[in-house]
Specification:
The protein is α+β, with helices and mostly antiparallel strands. It has five helices and three strands; from the N terminus they run αββααβαα. Strands 1-2-3 form a three-stranded mixed β-sheet, sandwiched between helices.
Length: 126
């Protein structure tokens, strides 16, 4: 309950950064298939870890993270203008591979011809 404000501001940061990536950043290194997965904000708002998913090869992923790191100052300044918070956090970007991992697991299950259980199948068995 004590971190409700931090969570709310982290969601606002995620929304604003996603919009900036889509509309304002024109760096050719930034992949069109890049999206923000989550934002983890320090309790004192000094730092924000932004987890970014980039679909594509390893080179595209590295280039996209470099593009975001080079635009971090611009994005931080824009966040300060848009969110009106006392202290705008330093932005740190990390590559998130959880979506790729999920796709890989789904492909393995599909190749094994294993069908996931659904609630309807469970109800039929009872």
């Amino acid at each position: 309950m004590a971190y409700v404000r931090t969570d709310r501001v982290a969601e606002d940061i995620k929304k604003e950064l996603s919009e900036m990536m889509r509309l304002r950043l024109r760096d050719p290194r930034l992949s069109e298939m890049a999206s923000i997965v989550s934002v983890e904000l320090a309790r004192d708002f000094s730092h924000a870890t932004v987890r970014v998913s980039v679909m594509g090869d390893e080179a595209a992923q590295k280039d996209s993270i470099k593009a975001l790191e080079s635009a971090a100052g611009f994005m931080r300044r824009e966040l300060g203008k848009r969110l009106h918070i006392h202290h705008t956090p330093q932005l740190h970007f990390e590559l998130d591979t959880s979506i790729e991992y999920g796709v890989k697991i789904a492909k393995i299950l599909r190749d094994l011809d294993v069908k996931p259980e659904t609630e309807e199948e469970n109800a039929d068995e009872e």
